[in-house]
Specification:
The chain is mainly beta. It is built from no helices and nine strands. It is globular.
């Protein structure tokens, strides 16, 4: 799966997982991208808006150190905070997901 290279840096990749450092400066937005099922570890406190292909948006308020799970899907992220947003994301790979 293709990443948004402006905001994502692959820091480890294997046959089973890809670990990505996600970084958005205050006010930055990314394009709509495909997401694998993933574990998200917040490095910083963050305030963001996630927008889905159907146009609806959801605010996300996250505390540094929190861990969450994200389902596969398409979304765009905007850092609506005044400080950088950083997450470490562990994307879970499957044989089916690699066929895309």
């Amino acid at each position: 799966m293709k990443l948004d290279p402006t905001h994502n840096e692959v820091i480890l990749e294997s046959d089973h997982a890809r670990v990505v450092l996600v970084h958005f400066e205050a006010g930055e937005s990314g394009p709509i991208v495909d997401k694998r099922p993933r574990v998200i570890v917040a490095v910083t406190d963050s305030h963001a808006t996630v927008t889905f292909p159907d146009g609806h948006s959801e605010p996300r308020e996250v505390k540094a150190g929190s861990v969450s799970f994200g389902e596969a899907g398409r979304q765009a992220t905007k850092n609506t905070g005044t400080t950088p947003l950083e997450n470490i994301v562990v994307e879970l790979k499957s044989k089916d997901s690699e066929k895309k």
